[in-house]
Design a protein that fits this description.
There is one protein chain. This protein is α+β, with helices and mostly antiparallel strands and 303 residues long. Helices cover 50% and strands 13% of the residues. The chain is built from 10 helices and 7 strands. It has helices spanning 7-13, 47-56, 61-65, 69-99, 101-109, 191-196, 198-236, 244-254, 256-267, 274-293; strands at 113-116, 119-122, 126-130, 133-137, 154-158, 162-169, 172-180. A hairpin with a 2-residue loop joins β6 (162-169) and β7 (172-180). α7 (198-236) crosses α8 (244-254).
Length: 303
């Protein structure tokens, strides 16, 4: 445990304001006795207003980081919903409209298949693409050749003997599930029975969307943790009195512009190489962090 020279040093390192006296960056007190600062935001702020601040008034993200944790959680879920609407919901809805729904897809556009002896047999390979989610069936081998799957984020690959759930991120594939066909489809299962299971497919679409949203948010929350490790030494040497939780939330807010750039690029077909857009997003995030904290750094002293 860290030992402090005095209570003031402890307060500074733990992100607490001085016990007595005004906030170093404070302005006049309001009617409640609260010291106003240039970073203040209303406590009853909406997620839309938080998004506006992240894009248009980045300095106020310090104020956002000091809001109750519940506000941050709502913003995190809001951003996850926006990204999933762009990457998943719109492509899935457009694809289903194009196919005429699962009923038309299964009865008119899918080749005949059946399960016998614990193995799947299909007349020919086929793929059902649903935006960032796809079902690939190829029974020419026990399991689908992963080199042929492309870069779709989530793939259910069904071979003659194996069913796999595969996540693809930046060209890297990870098999989340690998089980026997017989664990999912009993002998005698065919296209007619598939049609009767259509409600389950709609439920699977919803669950897959939630799963992808969790993965996406997890990635950006880990990113915020990484940025926090870089921002903490800089923020600690200011008079802002932010604790590690504040810095973590600030770093997540600071990723907002980068998040939108990267995922709009994905949603529009990755016309710009994803590596380049990711680097631009990282640069913007780092610039926001340093541009926010650097003016208040107390160079040459830690007192």
């Amino acid at each position: 445990m860290r030992e402090y020279l005095n209570d003031e040093e402890r307060r500074k390192y733990e992100g607490e304001p001085p016990k007595d006296g005004p906030n170093p960056l404070g302005g006049p007190e309001d009617e409640s006795g609260h010291t106003a600062t240039e970073f203040d935001v209303p406590e009853k702020i909406s997620v839309i207003e938080q998004l506006r601040i992240c894009i248009m008034s980045p300095k106020q993200m310090i104020g956002l980081s000091q809001l109750p944790v519940g506000k941050f959680i709502k913003y995190t879920l809001f951003m996850g919903l926006i990204l999933q609407i762009m990457l998943y919901v719109i492509p899935v809805v457009v694809t289903l409209i194009h196919f005429g729904g699962f009923q038309n897809l299964f009865t008119n556009k899918m080749p005949e298949f059946h399960v016998a002896g614990g193995k799947l047999h299909a007349e020919e390979p086929f793929t059902i693409g649903l935006g960032s989610y796809q079902i690939v069936v190829d029974t020419s081998a026990p399991e689908v050749n992963r080199d042929s799957l492309g870069s779709v984020p989530l793939t259910f690959a069904i071979g003659s003997e194996k069913v796999q759930a595969i996540v693809t991120e930046n060209g890297l594939q990870e098999v989340l599930v690998s089980q026997k066909v017989s664990d999912y489809f009993p002998d005698g299962f065919n296209r007619e029975e598939l049609v009767s299971a259509i409600p389950g497919f709609y439920m699977a679409i919803v669950l897959a969307g939630l799963f992808l949203m969790i993965i996406t948010l997890g990635k950006y929350l880990l990113g915020a943790l990484f940025y926090m490790l870089l921002a903490w030494p800089l923020a600690r040497n200011t008079g802002l009195y932010l604790n590690k939780g504040n810095i973590f939330r600030f770093c997540f807010y600071a990723q907002t512009i980068g998040m939108l750039l990267v995922n709009v690029n994905k949603a529009t077909g990755t016309y710009i190489p994803s590596v380049i857009v990711s680097m631009v997003g990282i640069f913007i995030t780092m610039r926001l962090i340093f541009k926010t904290f650097a003016p208040y750094a107390r160079y040459g002293t830690d007192e």
